[in-house]
Amino acid sequence: MSRPETDLAATLAADTPIPRDTEGPIFAEPWQAQAFALVVELQNKGVFTAEEWAQALGAEIREALAAGGCKDGSDYYERWCEALEHLLIAKGLTSHDGVDALAASWARAAEATPHGKPILLENDPQRS
Fold first, then answer.
1. Cα–Cα distance measured from residue 71 to residue 49, given in angstroms and rounded to the nearest whole number
2. What whole-number distance in Å separates Cα of residue 119 and Cα of residue 18?
3. Do 86 and 122 lie in a common domain?
4. Alpha-carbon distance values, 6 to 23, 27, 94 (Å)
5. Is 28 helix (H, G, I), strand (E, B) or coil?
6. How many structural domains does the chain have?
7. What local confidence, expressed as pLDDT, does residue 17 receive?
8. Which one, 43, 66, 108, 120, has least CB within 10 Å?
9. Is residue 124 over pLDDT 90?
10. How high is the pLDDT of residue 51?
11. Which element (helix H / strand E) includes 84?
12. In this structure, are 72 and 33 located in the same domain?
């Protein structure tokens, strides 16, 4: 029996420019692996189906390509995050305002974090 995350990775890799080698997805940065794992976990928990995810990701990739986006796959995980954001909004699990507020909080936390220290939301000076 195959593992669900392996099935999801294979399904996603079939028609998308996912950065990969012979053993599966590859990640240039830790956040890419975290984004990948988050989507796999949400799909495994039933938040959305593999088909819903494939449709959302495919739409983001098609939109980026139509706008002249990177065709070599180097922006793949940016599309991944956009697809996740839009899918969660469509399912009513968050809102554009909620995403924007959280992004702003992360940016403030990054600005307030000393160099070399981990960026934590708790470092946002406006966080209550």
1. 26
2. 28
3. no
4. 11, 16, 27
5. coil
6. 2
7. 63
8. 66
9. yes
10. 93
11. helix 76-90
12. yes
Measured between its terminal Cα atoms, the distance across the chain in Å is 47
Q: By C-alpha distance, which of 114, 116, 110 is closest to 124?
A: 110
Check if the beta carbon of residue 91 is closer than 8 Å to that of residue 42: no
How far apart (Å, rounded) are the C-alpha atoms in residues 12 and 18? 8
- Its sign, for the CA torsion 95, 96, 101, 106, is positive
Same domain membership, residue 14 and residue 38: yes
Residues 69, 28 share a domain: yes
Structure tokens at 30: 């830790």
Same domain, 86 and 44: yes
d(CA 20, CA 43): 20
Q: pLDDT tens, 19-76?
A: 777 877 788 888 899 999 999 999 999 999 999 999 999 899 888 888 887 667 778 8
Q: Are residues 52 and 99 both part of a single domain?
A: no
Same-domain pairing of 110 and 72: no
The reported pLDDT for the residue numbered 26 is 81
Q: What is the extent of the structural domain holding 64?
A: 4-94
Cα 38–chain centre separation: 7
CA distance 91 to 76: 22
